[in-house]
Amino acid sequence: MKFIFSMPFLTCPPNPEFVTQEAVIALISAAEEAGFAGVSFTEHPMPDESWRQAGGHDDIDPFVGLSFAAAVTTRLRLLTYLCVAPYRNPFLLAKSVASLDALSGGRLILGLGAGYQVSEYAALGVNFDERNALFDETLEVLPLAWSGEPYRAYSPRARRRGR
At CA 123, angle to CA 122 and CA 129, rounded to 5? Predict the structure, then answer.
């Protein structure tokens, strides 16, 4: 059985003791030393206050956190748990994922989801009702971007809107 250590930012606001360079290094290093298989960060870039107060949480950007984890570990797998694909341009997501995977020696596990926070979608200027189509589009674009083959640089989101 394998266990993943999820960074403990599950409070609002995050406990300041956990959001320092020293604390993150200590926590991630302890997870690796204890035999955890990986470490994960989730994605909530703009949770609304009512959700936070009802038990939601803040978090740091998963790619920043996982890049930091990659730099201070050698074995831990790095998991986005999860990356909300519709929040991100699929080409920029492909570049972030490929870069982190390469720099970590192939340790990245990309966990993707469509998200559920209507208020976060609104705060990010992304139409909540389009989230499933945007998610499907990301699943289509990622392998094309990673194929190594030339691909027509276009904006799928703009194409779908007739631009």
Answer: 20
**How many Å apart are CA 62 and CA 65, to the nearest integer?**
5
Query: What's the one-letter identity of residue 155?
Result: S
CB 45 within 8 A of CB 115: no
Q: What residue ranges define each of the domains in the chain, with the CATH number in brackets? A: 4-160 (3.20.20.30)
Helices (H) and strands (E) in the chain, counts: 7, 6
For residues 70 and 103, is the Cβ–Cβ distance under 8 A?
Answer: yes
For residue 108, what are its two tokens? 């990245």
- Reported as a single tens digit per residue, the pLDDT across 95-125 is 999 999 999 999 999 999 999 999 999 999 9
Q: Kindly report the pTM of this predicted structure.
A: 0.86
For the chain, strand residue ranges (E) read: 4-6, 38-41, 77-80, 83-84, 108-109, 112-113
